[in-house]
Amino acid sequence: MNGAVASDDRGLAYGDGLFETLRVSAAGDTPLWPRHRARLLDGAARLGIPVDGAALERCRADALAGDTGAGVLKLTLTRGPGGRGYLPPDDPTPTLFARRGGLPPWTAAQREQGVQLGVCDTPLGLDPLAGCKHLNRLPQVLGRREVAAAGWDEGLMLDEWRRPVEATAMNLFAVFGHTLWTPSLERAGVAGVARAWLLERAAADGWCIDVRMRPLSHLRAADGVFLSNAVVGVLPVRKLAQWVWPVPEPVRRFQRDLDHLFQ
Amino acid sequence: MNGAVASDDRGLAYGDGLFETLRVSAAGDTPLWPRHRARLLDGAARLGIPVDGAALERCRADALAGDTGAGVLKLTLTRGPGGRGYLPPDDPTPTLFARRGGLPPWTAAQREQGVQLGVCDTPLGLDPLAGCKHLNRLPQVLGRREVAAAGWDEGLMLDEWRRPVEATAMNLFAVFGHTLWTPSLERAGVAGVARAWLLERAAADGWCIDVRMRPLSHLRAADGVFLSNAVVGVLPVRKLAQWVWPVPEPVRRFQRDLDHLFQ
């Protein structure tokens, strides 16, 4: 499972592939798996990588068959080896593998009181595969280095018009009265499965959903700001530069709902 | 040399690395090596990957020590395994390896009479690492698939304002009287070593050098259009949609100069 990949694999050569990072519950379940699988199949179709759902099921099941316990399961799918330069082979043999890992080190205090965000200088430009969780992640690597250098907990990444797209590894949300806002990710960003789950849940609960690109200043008047991903769940944001937000009850409820799902 | 890479290598996980593709002469020389090495070191510095020139020299020398003969030598440098998600490890152990390959299958007729270009739909968005030959190459993979589907020889990739940046695997040039034009690659594209060599050569020969972004229509009035890279040298362009260009003497001279270097 934690083996090696051929040095001419196109995942390594060009980032020609996709990945998914799943939260594994203490009981060994992966509750958001159907959404992860659907996103992976959709990305594979966009890239033209032939894979079927059964192969993904087997890969996940095999990886979970050994040691269980809460943690993270990462699936990687690439177009496999070969091709002539950038041109993929006509009949590729995709590479698919799983790796287990531990949960990210967010503390109870950070989850309770919220984290401090910064604004990364690294921009997120137009991505022809916006939404996909593909293997071209250098902007996120650069952004994450900025976060570490500045001592923030996470970093917002902006588009060329300085509109927030997402954090380096989490989607962005803000609450305004009965409206839940998140950037639209039409030009860049990863369409998170926790994001989709939260949007559906909120819509079903009667929230007004606002999915569009907004200037950074839009956040100033928010009642609460939070981040989400499928491993951490909901992480409230306490502070961004001079702006400070409380953690209002709706944000705590979203957090509890996802935590409950992950139990 | 043609081995395997750990499945948690950051080159595979995020495209967190760089590559160089060198032309190897029949005598086993790599005439543009100092430029390749300089670009690789520059990219490594921008990414924060610790590597020294001596390690690159050894890797190249070892790869050329065995079978020689004309062909291609590809060097890949990644940040190596590890890290916590996108955050690189503090003290990375880079992965560096070489692979030999054959020359691309351009025919004598294509090199003599020129090739047919198309215009790819896949855009090249803002790249925070513009100029670097990094491992995030999904736009080029998508573009190259368009070229194959349409039956072109190569494809021009445009920015969001439909200005040509480069072809999928080659830089773009055009000749207008005594002026040699090439796109400026400030926001996207790979700063080719053959491109740099040609620009210096042309400037030394008294050409007026015009390095800036121009609309696609700028090409219409060109005396001649050509592509370059460090493996193929110069490839004249004969046709793009309804536009047809001859192969003027200056383009043949640039081609001969680079072919001479590669002998």
TrEMBL record, chains A, B:
Pfam families: Aminotran_4 (PF01063). Its EC number is 4.1.3.38. Keywords: Folate biosynthesis, Lyase, Pyridoxal phosphate. One of its GO terms (cellular component) is cytosol. It is an enzyme of class 4 (lyase). The keyword Lyase applies. Pathway: Cofactor biosynthesis; tetrahydrofolate biosynthesis; 4-aminobenzoate from chorismate: step 2/2. One of its GO terms (biological process) is 4-aminobenzoate biosynthetic process. Its cofactor is pyridoxal 5'-phosphate. It catalyses: 4-amino-4-deoxychorismate = 4-aminobenzoate + pyruvate + H(+). One of its GO terms (molecular function) is 4-amino-4-deoxychorismate lyase activity. InterPro entries: Aminodeoxychorismate_lyase_IV, Aminotrans_IV, Aminotrans_IV_CS, Aminotransferase-like, BCAT-like_C, BCAT-like_N, Class-IV_PLP-Dep_Aminotrnsfr. Gene3D superfamilies: 3.30.470.10, D-amino Acid Aminotransferase, subunit A, domain 2. Belongs to the class-IV pyridoxal-phosphate-dependent aminotransferase family. PANTHER family: AMINO-ACID AMINOTRANSFERASE, AMINODEOXYCHORISMATE LYASE. Homodimer. NCBIfam families: pabC_Proteo (TIGR03461). This is Aminodeoxychorismate lyase. It comes from Alloalcanivorax marinus.
